[in-house]
Amino acid sequence: MKLRLVPVLLTSLLSAALLFGGWYAYRQFAVQEPLQKIVSSYEGVNESHISINRNEVTLKLNLEPGTKLRELVQYVNSEGKSAIGSRTLRLDVDQNSSALLDEYWDKAMFSVAEAMESRKYTLIPAKLDGLKAQSSEFQNVTATTEIDDNNVYVSLSDGKQSKFIILPRVPGTMGVWNNA
Q1: Origin, by domain of life (predicted)?
Q2: Are 132 and 141 in contact (CB under 8 A)?
Q3: Residue 179 neighbours by CB under 8 Å, 6+ apart
Q4: Each residue of 154-171: pLDDT tens digit?
């Protein structure tokens, strides 16, 4: 029996194109696009980019000042449960910060790290608000703190610009905060 090379190659190329094309179409239209619509519909999200791999869904977000991160995470987890599945959700928030907000966070970071390490999360809002009393330059800064099962969310805003910090509640992984 003699096999012809051209029909075998064409059949294998067509099968591979159909298989990978179907996989790509499924990922794009059944997973990523519905999740993109869910994230984009949330009030306060200016832009979003979604990256999905085997174990993790990464949301790269550009948010308006005053957006509540904890509520956004809960909304995406509940509404996008079918698209996320068993993957973990990771947020990467663009920082539209100013020198004032960076200085505010630099002064608060030691107290916040101490409260995180001792697991006394109720001290964080008090420490952040205490900075306003210490210096008149921080009077226009609004600091909000939210918490869920996995993270502590700190949002700093001066009305025009914002800084979002996500602090993991897992003690062993705190180290240096790469998103601060």
Answers
A1: Bacteria
A2: yes
A3: 92, 93, 165, 166
A4: 999 988 899 999 999 875
Please state, for a pLDDT cut of 70, what percent of the chain lies above it.
Answer: 94
Q: Exposed, middle or buried, 71 (CB in 10 Å: 0-12/13-18/19+)? A: middle
pLDDT for the residue 145: 93
* Burial of residue 35, with CB atoms counted within 10 A of its CB: 0-12 exposed, 13-18 middle, 19 or more buried: buried
Pairing of strands 88-93, 142-147: unpaired
Q: Which fold has domain 5-93?
A: GMP Synthetase; Chain A, domain 3 (3.30.300)
Which DSSP string do the residues of the chain spell out, in sequence order? Answer: ----HHHHHHHHHHHHHHHHHHHHHHIIIIIIHHHHHHHHHSTTEEEEEEEE-SSEEEEEEEE-TT--HHHHHHHHHHHTHHHHTTSEEEEEE--B--HHHHHHHHHHHHHHHHHHHHT-TTHHHHHHHHHHHH-GGGTT-EEEEEE-SSEEEEEEE-SS-EEEEEEES-GGG-SS-TT-
The reported pTM is 0.78
Name the nearest CA neighbour of 143 among 160, 124, 122: 124
In terms of pLDDT, which residue wins out, 87 or 1? 87
